[in-house]
Structures are given as C-alpha cells and as structure tokens.
Amino acid sequence: MNISFDLKTLYGQNQFPVAAGRGKGKVEISAKSGEFNPQLWTSLIFGIAPTTNVDGVVDSAIISLVSGTTTYNITSPYSGKVTDDLGALNLSTGQTMQKVASSPSAGQYSFSNSNGYIFSATDSGAGYKISVSYSYTAAANALAPDAQSFEANNELMGYTPSCSLYLSKTYGGRSTHMYFPFVVSNDFSLSMKNEDFTVPDIKMTGLADSTGKVFYINTI
Prior knowledge:
This protein is mainly β and about 220 residues long. It has one helix at about 40-45; strands at about 1-10, 20-30, 55-65, 70, 80-90, 95, 100, 110, 115-120, 125-135, 160-170, 175-190, 200-205, 215-220.
C-alpha cells in the first residue's frame, strides 16, 4: 500500500521552501497471491458473476491412425461439444499440417464438428498431435459440477465495479488492521511463465466513501 500527495512548495530567495501545501492525494494498493481465484478477479475488475456454460476450454490429444484409416472423431471431456479446431501436428515428420475445407492431400487435413478430422490416405498410419477447443454446460454434468465461466462485456465508459477491503498484519503479539470502505481496481496482470508460478497481481485505488472516509487504521 502506498499513500501519496501532490505537494506545492513556496520558495523565497533561499534554496529550501518555507511553506508547503498538499494537493491531490491517492491511495494505491497492490496485492499478489498464489491463490488461483478467477471469481475474485472478475468480480473485482469486471463486476461479473459466473455462469455454468463453459466455453473455450483447450485440450490436446495424441492420436495414431491405423494404416488405411483417414478419419478420427474427437470426443471432448465431460460430454461436451467440440466447437473449434486449433491445429494438427504430424509427430512422424514434425510438420504442422495445413487445414483445408475438404479433400485433403498429403500434409493436409480437414475438420468439421460432424465428421471430425480427415487426413489424406498418404498420411495414413502416422501419429498426430491435435488440439481442439470445446464447450459444455457444467450444471448438467456430474463430472464437472464446480466448473464456471466468466464472460467480460464491453461496458460503457465510466462503469467501475467497487468493493471494500480489509488488510491486517500481526507481529510481536500486536496486530494492525486497515479497512478501506470504497476501493476500485484499475490494473490486473496474470503473467503466463513457462518456468515459474503464475501469480496474479491486482492493483487497486482507495477512494472516499459517501461519508468522506477513505480508510480506518486499528491497532490491537
């Protein structure tokens, strides 16, 4: 947490100011947590509630076509519906396959929700890594009863979700507690690192509430 003010200073003929007056002030709060909690992020940043219609889940599968076979049908987890194809890689050659609308030749494939993947007879018998995106309704499926989806909308400018915030610190048998009655978030980052933990970073600003209070500090 950081509290800062603009400061206007008055100088005479000497090097240091002889008077000062505060201008605008601001309370900036930054929080990082290893807890992966999308419901917290989305309610604080976007003010949205979760739904059970889960969309855009990515999954990968490694398949091997039996010689003479050119088709493969994807079955998504949780009895979902496959909604999109995200590519195919020939594991035998390392080649990224080219997607075509129909009638694939060597090095190509086609995909549709009804027919699945279709490869050429030339590529039959090779191993492939394929990625797909799928959707499902979690409430209707016992395998994923806790699944949730959050959909961010393009709101009008000025729309700003708010909340209250409690901070506490205990040391040496004493504890300090801070309460911010009116807080908004203006920054959220989620770095996807290959060799490190993903730690969400939320930045917030404390404002004055309807009674003019910005924060409370209590020591126990």
